[in-house]
Write a structure and sequence with these properties.
Number of helices: 17
Number of strands: 17
Low-confidence stretches: 107-149, 192-205
Structural class: alpha+beta
Largest sheet: 7 strands, antiparallel
Helix content: 25-40%
Mean pLDDT: 85
Strand content: 15-25%
Distance between the termini: 47 Å
Strand order of the largest sheet: 9-10-11-15-14-13-12
Length: about 450
């Protein structure tokens, strides 16, 4: 891969990541991670690339580098860490992948960036490849972010070795990387096989070996001056206080099967038992048998429902069954029913454009033609349920946040958790804080917990 191609690929992939996953709505946290990353990148041996760091809005513990210097960590990864040295170790590793041009040396491939891509790919496969994928906004493809390198074991070892060296030269304890790997490994083991399984090790194999090697290497590395670093646990955790553990309520939330979006001012009920997903740019639900999907997207202002329908149908190879003006909850709407054909079969699609006070919404329902009758009532009920939320529904919205609680002398995790309203059980709290679950805590020790807080606009 040429350097020009590397920069172009990275720029395109970064746009896909940020459009599909989104970056966290926390300028202070983003600035903090950028500062740590730039401090380490200053020691990178590669000077022809501009390193860019950011935090993506995903609960899946993950970190990845794209060609051209784009490096991301998820808020789910940050919640696992207990020191700035651990974050520095992860960022040093990813910086090395860029500096050594590992993605340019390897054949690149599209890989999952957490549950969003996994669910999107699942939906696309379930309802019919490219044509159906277009009908639901190419969610799986865009969420995959395009290009995360399929690194070789030697490249991984090199990224660990040089990443540790870069972090140490920047003033960080070199045992941060093995500690971070240990935390990620524990999380991966806890979630193994679940839809929320962490994605970091999808492209970073050989965990136990890497922990052992990086732990041994840490004893031999010389640490540079630590100017500007957060050296204590309390200083580091103070940067994480308040981050969301789950989608922010301002991006909408599910109250069982009812989805409520307070900022855009709409509510819609999805079929009970369907698997919901609240993504950055859309909300959707997939049938338990993975052969039907309903999705809502916001298309902004400036276009009428009928004009938006005509624009979409012009771009698709669709056989229109019917198209008509309609009204949904007192709002002007336009409805289209059509068939889509691709190499995987024929699919039935319904589109509903709704002229809402906030702008134009599009609701899409898709299923194989052979399953149309089976899902007819569920799809009709869902499309007809679109409306504005009630004050009672808005008052029920809440969100989970990471909070830092100071321990009392001799206090144990169960008592601290009860006092703080911790949603993690003591075993999980101990694991994610690097603590013995049975040991009494020292006075003033900062502990990460997760609490539910009311949403305030």
């Amino acid at each position: 891969m040429s350097r020009a191609r590397e920069a172009s690929v990275g720029r395109s992939a970064a746009q896909q990541v940020e459009a599909s996953l989104g970056v966290v709505d926390d300028a202070s946290l983003r600035a903090y991670v950028i500062g740590v990353g730039q401090r380490i990148a200053a020691f990178s041996p590669r000077g022809d690339v501009r390193y860019r760091f950011d935090v993506v809005s995903s609960d899946v513990p993950n970190a990845f580098a794209l060609p051209g210097g784009y490096i991301y960590v998820t808020r789910g990864l940050l919640a696992l860490l207990n020191s700035e040295a651990e974050l520095a170790g992860i960022l040093g590793h990813e910086i090395t992948h860029v500096a050594a041009r590992h993605s340019a040396q390897s054949e690149t491939r599209a890989t999952s960036v957490g549950i969003l891509a996994r669910m999107g790919a699942l939906a696309g496969a379930a309802i019919g490849g490219s044509t159906a994928g277009e009908a639901l906004g190419n969610l799986g493809r865009t969420a995959g972010a395009g290009f995360i390198a399929a690194y070789s074991r030697d490249q991984e070892r090199e990224a660990d070795r040089l990443g540790q060296e870069l972090a140490a030269r920047a003033g960080y304890a070199p045992d941060g990387l093995p500690a971070a790997l240990q935390a990620l490994g524990a999380a991966a083991e806890r979630l193994r096989g679940s839809p929320e399984e962490p994605g970091f090790f999808d492209s970073h194999p050989g965990t136990n070996e890497r922990i052992l090697i990086t732990t041994r290497r840490a004893t031999d590395l010389e640490v540079g001056p630590s100017r500007g670093t957060r050296n204590t646990r309390a200083e580091f955790l103070s940067e994480l206080d308040g981050i969301h553990m789950g989608p922010p309520a301002k991006q909408g939330a599910f109250l069982r099967s009812l989805f409520v979006h307070p900022e855009l001012g709409f509510a819609m009920r999805f079929p009970r038992g369907w698997r919901p997903l609240n993504a950055n740019a859309r909300v959707l639900a997939i049938a338990p048998t993975r052969d039907a999907l309903i999705e809502v997207t916001f298309e902004g202002k400036g276009e009428s429902p009928s004009a938006a329908a005509s624009r979409l149908l012009t771009s698709k190879k669709a056989s229109v069954i019917s198209r008509e003006r309609a009204e949904i909850a007192g709002m002007p709407a336009y409805r289209v029913e059509a068939r889509l054909r691709d190499t995987n079969g024929i699919f039935h699609a319904q589109w509903l454009w709704i002229e809402h006070p906030a702008g134009l919404f599009r609701v899409t329902a898709t299923t194989p033609v052979g399953r149309k009758q089976a899902y007819s009532k569920q799809l009709e009920d869902a499309l007809a349920s679109f409306r504005e939320p009630t004050p009672t529904e808005l008052s029920q919205l809440g969100e989970l946040r990471l909070r830092i609680v100071t321990a009392r002398a001799g206090e144990k995790l169960p008592a601290l958790g009860q006092r703080a309203g911790n949603r993690w059980n003591p075993a999980v709290t101990a694991r994610l804080n690097g603590l013995d679950p049975a040991a009494p805590l020292t006075e003033g020790f900062p502990v990460k917990v997760v609490v539910r807080e009311a949403y305030v606009r």
